[in-house]
Amino acid sequence: MELHTVVGLIGVFGYLLAYALVQMRKLLIESNIYAALNIVGGACGLYSLSHDFNLAAFISQSMWLIFTLIGMHASRKRRLNLRNKIPPAA
């Protein structure tokens, strides 16, 4: 099995593990581990696609990664606001 295939499989495992842990209520969607597993999944998926390109999969992986980073930023901002007791923006 080629390296890019193994890396792609690691990415899929990361996505599926994150999803499974949230569904089994072992992990909160706001947790850094959830975001990290999704980031690893997206990055590994993109690496895999750099060897066997597929436009639809590239768009899906890229957007998954972007949405994860946006969600991670929003979650950190909410936690900071809660710690400092700042009301959420309307």
Question: Can you characterise this structure?
Answer:
With 90 residues, the chain is mainly α. It is built from three helices and no strands. The protein has helices spanning 3-23, 32-49, 55-83.
Blueprint of the fold:
Elements (H helix, E strand, L loop, with lengths): L2 H21 L8 H18 L5 H29 L7
Write a concise keyword list for the protein shown above.
90 residues; mainly alpha; 3 helices; 0% strand; elongated
What is the total domain count? 1
Average pLDDT across residues?
Answer: 92
Give a count of the beta strands, DSSP E runs of length 2 or more: 0
Q: Number of DSSP helices?
A: 3
Low-confidence residue ranges? none
What proportion strand?
A: under 5%
Q: Give the overall form.
A: elongated
The first-to-last residue Cα distance is 51 Å
Q: Helical proportion?
A: over 70%
Class per helix and strand makeup? mainly alpha
Short description:
With 90 residues, this protein is an all-alpha fold. The protein has three helices and no strands.
